[in-house]
């Protein structure tokens, strides 16, 4: 029997750990149940941190962890999924192709930044969506030091006032001063189409966020979008033109395109609709998890968000349940009633909220300390020691805060 997992992000990593944990508990050998993980590199990109400086350091190796739990790593990109014959075609960096059959498949392909067809965006826009994107932005920011201090050199426009946009924007004043000199007066502007900044956060934490933006000198343009970009700056939908050499696009994400090859229903973000076991009900043998799946967290109408907090726990349930089906034992319905947010606000600290109503529990330096622990400890892979790695993936105990 073979269980194939596509993706080495938070959901894919925990799917592998959890499946291997259940296999170990049941006393089944790796020869009887092979667990294979497909990804271009055996590396976890710590995506929630890509707004930070030195993004090339924000990765964690996975090969030793996978080896310690007897998970087979298949290097390459899943190119084609044929659910009728249960086969995945994989392309490698060297240009060769291989096929991998499966008895159960876990789709943990994550998400991608949504880039609309706005004139100039592809040529002049930056992002912090992927490691390569973040490295390109960092290189560009350092290159500003070689340019004259005019034509919007010290101005950064962030398109999108959600989680990613706010964290990128509030980090930029300090990053620019570190590059251009402490006497530099950066101008950072967030552009948000909705009537308020942080539209998904609600009324509770918004005053904290708005106060932090004021203290950092971050401007906002709400009720407006980006119409076009060129080498001189950005034009907004209200007609305003802002001179800038740096536009960071942070306006929405979609499930990775590979999910479109699964013949099943999706939501507006391209996520596959799944049942309580994270099974794609209309496609036998296929599970979806993390940003690739729309899953109910509880019976109160709350659904998992496209975040590492949900992806880790969803991954653990998906891996466990896919292995459980193959081993003929009961599955565990996914549930995630606890939910917190911890939003980085740069030099203004952070804001920590609890519950779907986002009740503010911590602000400022206290919340920043928690954010630092989340970013540097909690979301990193377990150590490459078999017992510890397997123990970390009990689906009932992963990321319940």
TrEMBL record:
This is NAD(P)/FAD-dependent oxidoreductase. It comes from Bradyrhizobium guangzhouense. Belongs to the NADH dehydrogenase family. Residues 2-315 form the FAD/NAD(P)-binding domain. InterPro entries: FAD/NAD-bd_sf (IPR036188), FAD/NAD-binding_dom (IPR023753), NDH-2 (IPR045024). Pfam families: Pyr_redox_2. Keywords: FAD, Flavoprotein, NAD, Oxidoreductase. PANTHER family: NADH DEHYDROGENASE, NADH DEHYDROGENASE-LIKE PROTEIN RV1812C.
């Amino acid at each position: 029997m073979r269980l194939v997992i596509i993706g080495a992000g938070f959901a894919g990593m925990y799917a592998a750990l959890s499946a291997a944990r259940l296999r170990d508990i049941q006393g089944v050998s790796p020869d009887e149940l092979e667990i294979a993980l497909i990804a271009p590199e055996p590396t976890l990109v710590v995506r929630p941190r890509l707004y930070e400086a030195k993004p090339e350091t924000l990765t964690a190796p996975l090969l030793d962890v996978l080896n310690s739990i007897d998970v087979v790593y298949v290097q390459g990109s899943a190119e084609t999924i044929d659910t009728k014959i249960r086969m995945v075609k994989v392309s490698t960096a060297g240009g060769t192709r291989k096929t991998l059959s499966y008895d159960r498949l876990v789709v943990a392909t994550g998400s991608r930044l949504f880039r609309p067809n706005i004139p100039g965006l592809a040529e002049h826009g930056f992002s912090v969506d992927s490691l390569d994107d973040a490295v390109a932005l960092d290189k560009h920011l350092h290159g500003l030091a070689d340019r004259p201090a005019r034509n919007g050199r010290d101005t950064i426009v962030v398109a999108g006032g959600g989680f990613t946009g706010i964290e990128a924007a509030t980090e930029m004043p300090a990053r620019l001063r570190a590059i251009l000199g402490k006497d530099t007066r950066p101008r950072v502007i967030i552009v948000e189409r909705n009537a308020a900044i942080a539209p998904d956060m609600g009324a509770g934490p918004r005053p904290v966020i708005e106060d932090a933006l004021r203290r950092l000198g971050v401007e906002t343009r709400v009720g407006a979008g980006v119409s076009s970009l060129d080498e001189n700056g950005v034009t907004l939908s209200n007609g305003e033109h802002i001179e800038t050499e740096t536009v960071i696009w942070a306006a929405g994400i979609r499930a990775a395109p590979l999910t479109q090859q699964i013949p099943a229903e999706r939501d507006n973000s391209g996520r596959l609709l799944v049942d309580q076991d994270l099974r794609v009900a209309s496609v036998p043998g296929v599970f979806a998890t993390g940003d690739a799946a729309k899953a109910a967290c509880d019976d109160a109408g709350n659904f998992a968000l496209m975040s590492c907090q949900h992806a880790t726990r969803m991954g653990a349930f998906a891996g466990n349940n896919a292995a459980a089906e193959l081993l003929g034992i009961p599955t565990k319905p996914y549930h995630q009633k606890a939910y917190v947010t911890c939003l980085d606000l740069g030099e203004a600290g952070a804001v920590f909220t609890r519950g779907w109503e986002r009740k503010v529990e911590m602000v400022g330096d206290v919340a920043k300390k928690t954010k630092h622990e989340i970013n540097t400890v909690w979301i990193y892979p377990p150590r490459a020691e078999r017992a510890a790695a397997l123990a970390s993936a009990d689906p009932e105990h992963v990321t319940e805060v």
